[in-house]
Design brief:
Helix 2 runs antiparallel to helix 3 and helix 3 runs antiparallel to helix 4. The relative contact order is 0.04. This protein has 4 helices and no strands. With 168 residues, the chain is mostly helical. It folds into 2 domains: 50 residues; 117 residues. The longest helix is centred in the C-terminal third of the chain and has 81 residues.
């Protein structure tokens, strides 16, 4: 039978465990809330930096210099959507006009050069195909000599017999 001292010891152990769990729960809740607040602040900062007007404008300029007109236009569209009243948006509208002009000029040069580019490509492709064809033909001819040599070894005695009969 349990004595008073045993019950007291069990009660103290249970109280210690409950107190420890309570401290753990409070500390965890505090840490989690602090981390959630920090995470929310980082998300806001990330959104602000992602849609930073100066960064979007500089991205658009760099993409235009690399002749990546569609990406440049996309960067400017983000700028116009997320920072419509900024001074960078005004500069971006002028940049958009120059991008469209450069893109049109690039397309016109391509259309002008297209017949010659296609002709050069066609000739290079024909040369490559002829080279492959010549190699295949050479391989077949090499195999043909080997096939004829094997067939000759098999038929040589019959051919000799036929030849001797025609000589006689």
């Amino acid at each position: 039978m349990a004595t008073f001292k045993d019950n007291l010891l069990v009660n103290r152990i249970i109280a210690l465990l409950v107190g420890g769990l309570l401290v753990f729960a409070i500390m965890s809740l505090t840490v989690v809330q602090t981390e959630k607040k920090a995470n929310a602040a980082l998300v806001i900062a990330l959104d602000e930096s992602r849609y930073d007007a100066q960064r979007l404008l500089s991205d658009a300029k760099a993409q235009m210099e690399n002749k990546d007109y569609s990406e440049s236009k996309a960067s400017l569209e983000e700028l116009f959507t997320n920072q419509p009243g900024s001074p960078e948006a005004v500069e971006g509208k002028a940049l958009l006009t120059s991008i469209e002009t450069a893109e049109a000029a690039s397309d016109a040069r391509w259309e002008e050069a297209l017949p010659q580019v296609k002709e050069d490509w066609s000739q290079a492709m024909a040369t490559e195909l002829r080279s492959e064809s010549d190699k295949k033909r050479a391989d077949m001819e090499a195999d043909l000599e080997e096939t004829i040599a094997k067939a000759w070894e098999k038929a040589k005695s019959d051919v000799r017999t036929t030849w001797e009969e025609s000589e006689a």
